[in-house]
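Handout, tutorial session.
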Amino acid sequence: MRQIQLKTKTINRIGFITGNAFRQVLIAVFGMTVPFVVIHNSSKIIWGSFVPLLLFSLLAAQIINWGNKEYLLRIFSKTPGKINVAYSQNLVARLPILIFFSILTCFYFPVSFGIWISLWLSGRYLQQSTEALIVYEKKFSASIVIELFAFAIFCIAFLLFNQHDLYFLLIFYSSYQILKGCSYFLLFYGFFNKANLKPDFSFFTVSFPFFVLSILGFLASKVDVYLLAHLGNKIATSDYQIINSLLVFVMSLSALIYAPFTKNIYRNKKSVIQKTRNLLAISGLVLVPISLCCITLIACFYLGLHLSFLFYTIAFFYIFPSFLYGIEVINLFRSHKEKTVVVILFFGATANTILSGLFLYFDFGMTGALLGSAIAQLMVLFLFKLNLYFEK
């Protein structure tokens, strides 16, 4: 009987991990597919012009999110009877940040653009608010249906009504985001408690470490794109944003690999931690070269971009470190040493900004931007391993 229960528990856990992993991969794939749809049916210049809007919205969404997923999952686990209260109060607490950025967009961009970007941010706000509920309630199938439906609507609308114009692309994409956001909100409408709409502003203090980590991780992976976009070359910005998204996606595969082992890591099993380190290193050595070959084919045959062998060599050293230090981040969390992670990631983000900026200033182009990021990644890896050495 006990063996049957253990097998059932294992099967359920595998289903949970697989469902969530598939959902995350699907969302990432759709995100990477959008620029290809736009470029194929419009132009690189249109997408390159859209990238600054995308970068602004991504950063704004990170700030509006404020680490709410990790915070809510912790609250849900501790007080499962008050899920609706925590969800509703968190939704209201972050609303002022959304309003602030919605107003800011109308000053930073033309008002006609600002209105649609505000809707875009509102959609992201609703999506991010329900992320913890999706995981806690295991609503992966429903999430996948929403993602498929919304993406299909976006593609059909863009293909049928495309005007080869930046403003129309913004309308389509913002509508796509608000459609997803409203769908997720309706999915979990039963958890929205109108009687508990008093904002809990202590959330901002408690979740601040999660917020800092998410911002640093975001900047570490996107600062080179921001710097390149600042130079104003729309074609180069379009190409590099797509390449960067593909590279970051490959980096994220490391997290999917060690996710099944996270529970054991938190139980302080050193043997499991070491086995996971070895598994990640071997997986990286296999997956990264294969992924880079696929990216090469995409760049050549779809983007018409023939990048040098040096570029892809640098790309390897940009991606591979994440397969080596990802487990160290979880290990430090287990030891309640989040500050160490913050310091190391802050150093990496700063180094990335300085180095990528210098290489771009000296006109090394996309290769220079990636080189700065790769050196920063190697520095981060070195610091995590150095910390591990001194802990021993």
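The second record follows below. Compare its token runs with those of the first.
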Amino acid sequence: MDQDEDGGRTATEAPLLRPRRPHRRRRRTLAALGEAGVVVVSALVLSLLVTTFLARPFSIPSASMEPALLEGDRVLATPLVPGPLPLQRGDVVVFADRRGWLGDDGDGAGPAAGEVGAAQRGPAGRAAVVVLTWLRVLPDPAQGHLVKRVIGLPGDRVVCCDAQGRVSVDGASLDERPYLPPGAVTTQVPFDVSVPAGELWVMGDNRGDSRDSRYHQDVASGLVAQDAVVGRAVLRVWPLDRVGWLPRHGEVFAAVPDPPPAG
């Protein structure tokens, strides 16, 4: 082999290549995995915070709240009501079925879209449902929920019906046309209930297809415990052509006096 005077390699001799060090590749892989883990954990924490303090998704499986909510709609309910913000007459609320209202009529608010499908995709799908339920992104499928409109607050006397077939609250007759289906009869089920402390009187907007307080007067007088309310439904998020806020229609209750302290 030709060498120069200093004993070095000639210009035509190929330099030796240093082998790559495997531990460098491992460090880069671990760093990438660490960054991905931070992103995933951050997303999970953010999701937990949002569903705990801002909004939870629910699906509407029945026609009991038409026309405001149709079967198949998806809504977001804020847990700020009740809590930092008070419940008001006209609020559309999601509440846990503690008193056994749910039967075979499909009147409850079910899991958000995709929960059932995920459960049918095997262990990975079921694991995803468990995680999303723990994060409260999906409702707990073991605990049924219902969606109704608050008509009577603690201290209210709710009566049906006046001479014109209308519901009255504390003597003020309600014109419920803003949220009832066109031409709907207010109700054909008579009741006269004084709402005690910690309870609510609720009804579905589609009065002819809603198993609400009227039909459960044999169980706690048809009342719903306030602490069973998991949130107020504030936003319809699906389908896209029906995205919009869910109004309270406070004008319906404008003539109702503030309720006295409930006993």
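Points raised in discussion: The CA atoms of residues 47 and 135 lie 7 Å apart.
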